[in-house]
Amino acid sequence: MVRRKYSHHAKNIILRYKGFKAVLNNTFVNFLRCEKLDLGYNKITKIQVNAFRVPPLKMLLLDRNDIEELEFGVFDHLVGLKELKLKNNAIHKLPNRLFQNQSLLQKLDLEENLLLHLTNETFWGLSSLKDLYLKRNQIKIIDPGAFGHLAAVEFIDLSDNKIKNIGKNTFYGLHHIIKLALKENQIDHIEAGSFEHLSSVKYMDLSNNKLSIINKSILKGLAFLIDFRLTHNEILTIEAGSFENLSSSNLRDLSLNKLTAIYKNTLKGLSKIIELTITNNEISSIEAESFMHLSSVK
């Protein structure tokens, strides 16, 4: 059917909503100029290991299918791939080094799957990756160094997973990351120094988690953070000077937590913020001069 509809010179092959259940070996082998292959919105459950022998391919879309597993080697021929979309399938595990030949890949979308565990070889080979989408999986375990192969990555979305702990080496190697989304997890513990490798990060969202304590050692290394979100946690205590090294931070919202008191140095370091919401806490005491550090608040 593919050969009947498209000439061998086709650069874009769009096969959405066709009801396909499998992609067999060598289906696209004769399309030697194809740069975009869209198989989204089908019913694909199986992809044979030599299904994608199309070296020129730059964009492969497999979103909204029924894929549960990907065989090791299935992407090995796609050495020029720049975008891979696997969103909204049922993938529960990725073979180690599945992306070993995707050194040019810049965008990887794995949102809305069933991934549980990221190993330190899950993303092996993705040296050019810029954007990684992992939102709405079931991720509970991230091995130390799991992102260590992503030297160029600028954005990671881990929102809406089952993450409870952030370890010191969870984000090791992310030297160029700008945006890190961790909202809507179950994070109740962040090891001291966990973010000290993230000196380039400017946006971090930790809202809708279960953090109870914020201290200086947790936030160490985030000197250039601009947008920082902590709303809707269970924060009881913010240790004095916790925000002291966040001179650029625009922490707008501490609402929907469990703060009982604001002390003189609780907000020290937040001189750049122009507004701060602390509603829906349990504050019964505010020490004199607690807001003197908020020189930009209007």
Low-confidence stretches: none
Q: Please, how many helices?
A: 1
Number of strands: 21
Major β-sheet profile = 11 strands, parallel
Structural class, judged by helices and strands? mainly beta
What oligomerization state is this entry in?
single chain
| Residue share in β-strands | 15-25%
Strand order of the largest sheet: 1-3-5-6-7-9-11-13-15-17-19
Give the overall average pLDDT. Answer: 94
Helix share, percent: under 10%
Output the helix-strand order: HEEEEEEEEEEEEEEEEEEEEE
General shape: elongated
Distance between the terminal alpha carbons, to the nearest Å?
65 Å
Computed CA radius of gyration, to the nearest angstrom: 23 Å
Write structural notes for this entry.
1% of the residues lie in helices and 17% in strands. The protein is built from 1 helix and 21 strands. The strands form 6 sheets. It has an 11-stranded parallel beta sheet, with no helix packed on it. A two-stranded parallel ribbon has the order 2-4. It has a two-stranded parallel ribbon with strand order 8-10. The longest helix has 4 residues, at 2-5. The relative contact order is 0.07.
SSE inventory with pairings:
Elements: H1 2-5, E1 12-14, E2 22-23, E3 36-38, E4 46-47, E5 59-61, E6 83-85, E7 107-109, E8 117-118, E9 131-133, E10 141-142, E11 155-157, E12 165-166, E13 179-181, E14 189-190, E15 203-205, E16 213-214, E17 227-229, E18 237-238, E19 250-251, E20 261-262, E21 285-286
Parallel strand pairs: 1-3, 2-4, 3-5, 5-6, 6-7, 7-9, 8-10, 9-11, 11-13, 12-14, 13-15, 15-17, 16-18, 17-19, 20-21
